[in-house]
Amino acid sequence: GTSGGTDRYEITQRQATARILPGVPTTLWTYNGTYPGPTIESRRGRPVTVLHRNELPVPTVVHLHGGRTPAESDGYPTDLVLPEGWPDPASRRRRHGTAHMAHDPRAVTSRVTREYTYPLDQRAALLWYHDHRMDFTAPAIWRGLTGMHIVRDAVEDALDLPCGERELALMIADRAFAADGSLAYPALDPELRDRPGVTEPYAAGVLGDVIVVNGAPWPVHEVDAVRHRLRLVNASNARHYRLEAVTDDGRRLDLVQIGADQGLLAAPVTHTALPIAPSERYDVVVDFAGLRPGSRVRLRNRLGSGRTREVMAFRVTRAASDHSTIPKALCDDLPTWRRSQATAVRRFTFRAGQGQQGSGWYIDGKPFDPSRTDVRTRRGAVEVWRFTADVHHPVHIHQTGFRVLSRDGRAPLPYDAGLKDTVSLRPGETAEVILRFDGHRGRYLFHCHNAEHEDMGMMANLEIV
Ligand code: C2O
Ligand code: CU
Ligand code: CU
């Protein structure tokens, strides 16, 4: 609903049963009973409040990924929304004495409901919201706590991009199912243990063998033979994809990238295959013109094998007129920070580590601790952050967009164009990004967005002062 210049939404987090696989029910954790949750559409600069009500059996936290959000609404991992009857976290910690759940005196918990406020004073982009509870983000996302949030603005309105039915927001994820249709996750029920043991294949990140797009396995979507705008988000816990659009006769269609995590590129970049790491978004235009009615275009994943090679398909229905255009220049509002402006160069290593609680995934050799400040930065300062990885780590920073400056000392890849909030580090790689925190002050995070790595400690605190 709308009132007083603010859009207000109410979301109930509850269990719901869905038909994902034919013939068997799947119980999910949902936002408002659906998976994905409701797609919210907003205008830049028009604030949104979302009143979340937690009817799930566990505490939850909501984070709007890619949002420039005041700290109290950013979904800090200890700012829990406790369900009815759940013991106060401080007393629970005393009873169980878990070392891992370090005491966080700054946590602001709420009981059953919490209102999140999003100013959305930021570029048009596909954002997504998901659970962010400390140590339990991965199983919560796996069980369904994800949704999309589209921000629009006048810059984008001025372009004639494909719109209406020709604009598709596609949330791609993988899941595994037991024979009875229930979701299979290799960790034991997290509520029966304080922390699942770090065992393979859990430690590498959990993969599923069913590819689910907007809640449906390998869907087939009917399209007119015209340009379509595909707004892709990889909401998988750990799976990387390398997407290509292939016609019946084996031809690869161009994927014309017009936007990245944080909105439009300056100019389109044409790919024939597009890698997408967990939490990344790509905004691409695919032209189905000239394809025979009845023919199919398969969106395939070159990194998959067997059935994870397929993602979804488009079935061409008919020829139609197309007034969309992809201009050579898309926008001119991208930040142009230069290395010479940087007042700090920070270095971080993302590696497997060994700690008191066993092995995990650490940043600079340390597991996440909410009571430690890892980075203190000044609002408005331009900085270079240099990340080094042992294996694949998609590194995400809250509260900013950044530009990729280099990979292993060389120019960034074609996929790195535009303003990003996640950079996909390849094994052994060092990548540099340039950024500026120019919005709110307060306590935020940066972390690996392999959800299992994140839960196993690969997260750090960022204090913007
Ligand atoms: Cu997508 Cu810290 O989150
Ligand atoms: Cu985020
Ligand atoms: Cu990682």
UniProtKB/TrEMBL annotation:
Protease in keyword set: no
Keywords, in A-Z order: Metal-binding, Oxidoreductase
EC numbers, comma separated: 1.16.3.4
Domain Plastocyanin-like: 16-77, 357-462
Known catalytic reactions: 4 Cu(+) + O2 + 4 H(+) = 4 Cu(2+) + 2 H2O
Family named by the database record: Belongs to the multicopper oxidase family.
Subunit comment: Monomer.
Name used for this protein in its record: Multicopper oxidase CueO
Organism listed in the record: Streptomyces atrovirens
Upper lineage: Bacteria, Bacillati, Actinomycetota, Actinomycetes, Kitasatosporales
